[in-house]
Amino acid sequence: TVHHLENSRSLRIVWLLEELSLDYEIKHYARNPKTMLAPAELRKIHPLGKSPVITDGDTVIAESGTIIEYLVHRYGNGQWQPAPEDDQWLNYRYWLHYAEGSLMPLLVMKLIFSRVPKAPMPFFAKPIAKKISGGMVGGFVQPRIEEQLRLVESHLARHTWFAGEALTAPAVQLRFPLAPAAAPPPTEPLPPRTN
User: Fold this and answer.
1) Beta partners for 164?
2) For the segment 105-115, what is each residue's pLDDT rounded down to a tens digit?
3) 5, β-bridge pairs
4) Average pLDDT, stretch 28-53?
5) What is the pLDDT of residues 132-168, one digit of tens each?
6) Separation CA 181–CA 144 (nearest Å)
7) Residue 33 pLDDT grade (very low, low, confident, very high; cuts 50, 70, 90)
8) What span, in angstroms and rounded, lies between the C-alpha atoms of 67 and 59?
9) How far apart are CA 13 and CA 24, in angstroms?
10) The overall pTM is greater than 0.70
11) SS3 content of the chain, % helix, strand, coil (to 5)
């Protein structure tokens, strides 16, 4: 069972379940419209009350990377990951964890800073909040996102997929952060790095 919170990382889990041709059920949860947080019912499944979470029998598994590793190991039939002795094994491990460890924190920062000017505050504070949040996004966050995207672009220029010639779990894991990171679709290549 996939405990699916709308607009969440659980979409990648559904994609992997489809690719593995596994039978599954989706239990939908709606976000609180004011806070955009998960509902309290998710805490009955896992103490943090976040998504994605899956249940497989009596086993409860949280965190995208752990869920993906569990599904690939248990149900992947030797596919979706290279063997440890394969030259691509390290790329597999790196890109699987890169999505949440390197790229996603920057996207979350950008999302938070973009909401600051729209947050309720006294009218005289709005220009200051807009200036600070805009400065953080333009001066710190966006240049690092572009640096990350150049890394992805560079790797994929030399490899068909993230871990060699076959579709593997890192592609599933990276789909969530790469979609918003690249949106709106760039009309030109990323700008060269400046020092």
Assistant:
1) 161
2) 999 999 889 88
3) 29
4) 89
5) 888 888 899 999 999 999 999 999 999 999 998 999 9
6) 11
7) confident
8) 11
9) 11
10) yes
11) 55, 10, 35
Distance of CA 63 to the CA centre of its chain: 11
* Pairwise CA distance, residues 174 & 123, whole Å: 39
pLDDT of residue 191: 55
Short-list 154, 19, 170, CA closest to 81? 170
Residue pair 60/52 in contact (Cβ under 8 Å)? The answer is: no
Distance CA 32, CA 40 (A): 10
CA 59 to each of CA 54, 55, 56, 96, 182: distance values in angstroms, whole numbers, following the listed order: 8, 5, 5, 22, 35
The count of residues in the chain is 195
pLDDT of residue 193: 56
The residue type at 166: A
The one-letter code for the residue type at 164 is G
C-alpha distances out from residue 19 to 26, 119, 147, 164, Å: 16, 40, 31, 18
Neighbours of 190 (CB within 10 A): 14
